[in-house]
Design a protein that fits this description.
- The chain is an alpha/beta fold.
- It folds into two domains: 4-146, 3-Layer(aba) Sandwich (Rossmann fold); 149-273, 2-Layer Sandwich (Hypothetical Protein Tm841, Chain: A,domain 3), CATH 3.30.1180.
- The chain has helices at 15-21, 44-49, 62-72, 90-99, 114-129, 134-147, 158-162, 199-211, 230-241, 256-262; strands at residues 4-8, 24-26, 29-32, 35-38, 55-58, 78-82, 105-109, 149-153, 180-186, 189-196, 220-226, 248-253, 267-273.
- Strand 3 and strand 4 (35-38) form a beta hairpin.
- Helix 3 (62-72) packs across helix 4 and helix 5 packs antiparallel against helix 6.
- The longest helix has 16 residues, at 114-129.
- The radius of gyration is 18 Å and the shape is globular.
């Protein structure tokens, strides 16, 4: 038996990685027009095609977390890792669910999302797989959550502003023709960085943000992220590998819930050192 690790689908972990890690993923929800879906029921391409129809997102229900916890708990406890509580009610929902179960359940706010959240989940799952106890798995998750960074370039900040994820930059230069805005997930929230005048320059700025955090001799764990453009993520990861050989590296797509907020055309890096 081992400590079970559960997360929500904002973590942007692909099916193969989830199966390899033995992680349980609880789906978030989308409403497109008058129809409601679990986000694993909507293809990303379909969401992008319908993104201007008016998309609303919501977290998993307490019942979904209760079911996941009860199925996953083999007696050694459960660690639940959620998307930032400043962006979603998912953390609070998971806490409610944990209180309805009888086992040892630790709910941890990762204070991030997408591939950065995925790296936290990966670290916790690997610790659990090594036979660490629930205190050690929880400590590793918190350690990585405190170190992980996410920086990405988007085609427009329109969707982040529209969804209230970036209210302080309404009317910002990111809406101008040809400008590529950048954002960073920091302290649980999305923050705008300086814009770039081309896609190439934007990716260069993502790399610059990554370089500033380098820790000589420390292992690098990195995820390259995209939305329907794996080649862009591959180029970004290749650029990282020309400078540092990561001990952990993977490419994943932003999930439907995340793309509903960022809009299409998002490319970025999530990483931590240690």
């Amino acid at each position: 038996m081992a400590v079970a690790v559960i997360t929500d689908s904002a973590a942007a972990l692909g099916v193969e990685l989830v199966e390899r890690l033995g992680v349980t993923v609880v789906p978030m929800h989308l409403s497109i027009g008058e129809a409601s879906y679990r986000d694993d029921e909507v293809a990303l391409a379909e969401l992008v095609d319908r993104i201007d129809e008016g998309i609303h997102t919501s977290g998993p229900t307490p019942g979904a977390f209760v079911d996941a916890i009860e199925k996953a708990d083999a007696g050694d406890g459960v660690v639940v890792l959620t998307v930032s509580s400043r962006m979603s009610s998912t953390y609070q929902t998971a806490q409610v669910a944990a209180g309805k179960t009888g086992g040892d359940v630790r709910v941890i706010d990762t204070s991030t999302a997408a591939g950065a959240q995925g790296l936290v989940v990966l670290a916790a799952a690997e610790a659990a797989g090594q036979g660490r106890d629930i205190e050690q798995v929880s400590a590793q998750a918190r350690r990585v959550a405190a170190r992980v960074r996410l920086v990405a370039a988007v085609d427009s900040l329109e969707y982040l502003v529209r969804g209230g994820r970036l209210p302080e930059v309404a009317g910002w230069a990111g809406g101008r023709l040809g400008v590529r805005p950048l954002f960073e997930f920091r302290a649980g929230r999305i923050h705008a960085l300086r814009p770039s005048l081309s896609h190439q320059a934007a990716i260069g700025h993502v790399m610059s943000q990554w370089r500033r955090t380098k820790v000589p001799g420390a292992p690098l764990h990195v995820a390259a992220l995209h939305a329907l453009d794996p080649q862009a993520a591959t180029r970004l990861l290749d650029a990282v590998r020309t400078e540092v050989k990561p001990v952990t590296a993977f490419i994943e797509s932003f999930g439907p819930v995340m793309v509903a907020h960022t809009g299409p055309g998002v490319t970025g890096l999530a990483w931590w050192w240690g």
